[in-house]
Amino acid sequence: GLVLLAASLLWGCGSPNAGEPSPKAIHVRVVAAVGRDLTVRLRVSGRITPPVDRQASVSASVAGRVLEVTAREGQLVKQGEVLVLIDARLLEDGVRSGEAALKRVQADSAFKHEVARRSRELFEKGVASRQDAESDESGAVAADASVVEATSNVETARRNRGFADVTAPFDGVVVRVLRHPGELVDGTSATAIAEVAGLHPLEVMLDAPSETLAKLRVGDSAEVALASGKTLTASVARIAGALDAASLVGGVRLRFTGSDPALVLGSPVEVALTLERLKGAVSVPKRAVRRGPEGGAEVVLVADGKAKVTPVVTGPEDGDSIVIREGLKLGQEVVVEDPLGLADGTALEVER
Known about the structure:
The protein is an alpha+beta fold and 352 residues long. The protein is built from 4 helices and 22 strands.
């Protein structure tokens, strides 16, 4: 009996792990990665604005005193419609003086042509000398040159008189009136009189960060939500080629598709820009993604009943789902319940 007892004690000492249980599998819930069609949008604020080539600060091309302002803010105007009158009395005097000078040189030209004609006839009859005939012909030519110069002066005077009537450069609306009767203007853009904006086609102006600009292309679609709740479709018409140095954003212009809507300039809108369209993108629930020790995204796969920590590259989110751009294939199963404490090789009891 003692021999058997000793043998049994020696056997027990030689197998110290024989009585230890294997690690218990952790119960987890998993889902398979699925493919989804997804449209990635960015929502930003914008405002209704006139076309980029239909915004003008109107100024007089001649100096003078503002006599009358016929334009009113918000007034619809047609191209060529008079907005402001500049006191043109001095300009009108210039026109009359030029016209009088033109009549004088025209009369002088007619007289000298007649003298030249008679001198030719007398020369041909041998009564006058060649020198006298040529001198009179030269006088007639000089008189013609004076007529041309005087005509040009009259045209300039009339044109300057026309500049005293400041007109709309295109069809649109008067946005601001900057000068009033009695004020002086210097005939340059430094003393603008009014601002006019075109209404067709209206556009949406918005600012976007550099990462958004890099994804946009002319022609990309967008949705514009008005304050009334109505939504209109639009497309990207222009993208800024450079960023604002202070804010690091760039301008984007949208043009409405279809008929031109009746909107108020400057009114705010909310815009949904389409940045990307994904077909069959690999997606998993957002709660399946965790941050690794170095800050990168990772998921916990199930491989042969054990956890396999796998780094992934994530993409856009859509509701409770997130796109996995790299590191995961369709159909692979990932842990979705409390994956934070799972390490590589952990035994798992899977619930699907």
